[in-house]
Amino acid sequence: MTLTAKTADFSDHSGLRAARANRSGFALASMLAVTAALALSGCTTAETSSDMMRVERAQGSEQNIASLSGVISANPSDPEGYNVRGSAYGRAGEFRRALADFNKAIELNPRFYQAYANRALVERNMGDQAAAQADYNTALQINPRYDVAFIGRGNLYRQAGQLDQAFSDFNKAIELDTTDPRAYHNRGLIFQARKQHTQAIEDFSTAISLAPNSPEPYNGRGISYVALNDDDNAFSDFNTAINLNGKIAESWANQALVYERRGDKAKAAKSYSYALKLDPKYELARSGLARVKAGA
Predict the structure, then answer these.
(1) For a Cys-Cys bond, which of 51, 103, 119, 150 suits 169, CB 3.0-4.6 Å?
(2) For the stretch 266-291, what's the b/e string if a residue is b when 16 or more beta carbons lie within 10 angstroms of its beta carbon?
(3) Cα 25 to the chain's mean position, in Å?
(4) CATH classification of 249-296, choosing from 3.90.79.10, 1.10.3720.10, 3.40.50.980, 1.25.40.10?
(5) Confidence (pLDDT) at 91
């Protein structure tokens, strides 16, 4: 019996899983709503903690981008305007335009560390991992206390299988008292990969306390509960993940696994089938469905 489906990546942003979920959400740092009172020269930037956490589509809308372009026209020498519009382009999936705006922001202010981290996320999404790492490194050279860059670089390391380096970066972000749930979630994934499930549960729980409406850490924690044979708590977490977002295949496959472990093959088959409906290429759901049907 397979213990778990692929643990959802609560890494950078929902948009980084856009190919699977067919979404263009892109929760970049410093995505600021455009209002009449927005004076870009006074803006500060902050990483939105959610890649996960659902991104408002309106922030990447044509109307919002047009408003941002108007702000840039009025303040063409202010790098913040390009940084904010680049974030909006990223949310809309227009990565080349986003890259151009972050390039311009950095040209205007070569020490704009938030723009380097934003550009790194675009580069990562475009498949240029080396450039992304270089930009995270630059952001950290400028500001060694920038937790967002540690988390972003940590995700690069983790996805490359360099778990020790990733673990170190997530630890550094946490030591900086980050309130970004991704640091805890992603460190929890490493604990989980190392079969240190008690520590993983602690980190997932912290991520949940920081982002209670995001399903990913519930799935992560539930998987570690399954590994510890605590099916009741696992089932509760998987159901919570489904209630928060019923369109994530992993949540349904995880729920199916608990049904399967309990011997309820009919309900397991139903949940595996729904996971496959959401993601027809989800092999673990497919194999789980075949398994329960064979044993029916």
Answers:
(1) 150
(2) ebbbbbbbbbbebbeebebbbebbeb
(3) 10
(4) 1.25.40.10
(5) 87
Residues 6+ apart with CB under 8 A from 212: none
Instruction: Note the pLDDT of residue 140.
Output: 98
- Taking residues 248-255, what's their average pLDDT? 97
CA distance 221 to 117: 28
Tokens of 241: 């993940």
82-73-138 Cα angle (round to 5): 15
Looking at 2.60.40.790, 3.40.50.300, 1.10.260.40, 1.25.40.10, the CATH number of the domain 14-245 comes to: 1.25.40.10
Average pLDDT along the chain: 83
Q: What is the pLDDT of residue 176?
A: 97
- Alpha-carbon distances, residue 106 vs 91, 99, 138, 140 (angstroms): 19, 11, 11, 15
